[in-house]
Here is the input.
Amino acid sequence: MIDLNEKKAFDLTALADEFERRKNAGDSRFEKYRVLIEEFEAAASILRDLRAAEESLRAIEEIQSSPEMRVRFGQALFTHAVLCYCRATISETNARRRINVDKKAFTPEQFKKHLDIKDLRSTAMAHYHKGLGRYGDIWVDDRVAIRPVDGRISSIDIYKGTNFRADAAHDLFELLTVAISYVSSERIRRKASLDEAIAVAITKDEAFLERLKAHSFDPNLYFQGLGKPSNEFWQDVYVAGETLMPPAS
Here is the structure.
């Protein structure tokens, strides 16, 4: 049994990793728990990426009135928004389970916009050439020209580029609004399923309980150096932190 009045936590991510190793070795007793853990973890992680993309677009809105700020930060913010969005909705890594927002939540028109954002990410933003799709105009246009200078021939390199496109940002914001709503609902549903399964398992599945107890989790150690109040972890509120590792001097 686990004393639910005691402040003692367990690392479900580490537990799922153990269950995967067991499955690969032929032991599938804990497979249903592994799936529930990974599905909730994926929904939470994907939601963070989508919200990060939304925050970058909102930051672009905030700097619109300052030409200097647009030039300095517009491209970085828009690139970050596109990359986070695509990582959440397109990435086919085995590191986390997918939520097929594009096929489950978007209208046909929104799905076309989604593909255009994908094309932009996969061409102009990830590689050196002209972008494809609706937003694939001039993102980078490098030229070399030749002209006379002071009576001699002299070559020159010239450049023009796009920080961000307003129509692309507008469409991306529309997609994010739909995706965040859908994934938020999925996160809530998956959390409830996981909580319910574990609440039953700790009273009726001795083998699961034994493995769970082998993966204790110390939130103070996890958030060490971030100044996070330890009591936040013990409430049903969202807890996050970010570290900045300065370069070695």
Observations:
- The longest helix spans residues 166-204.
- The beta strands are 9-10, 140-149, 152-161, 216-217.
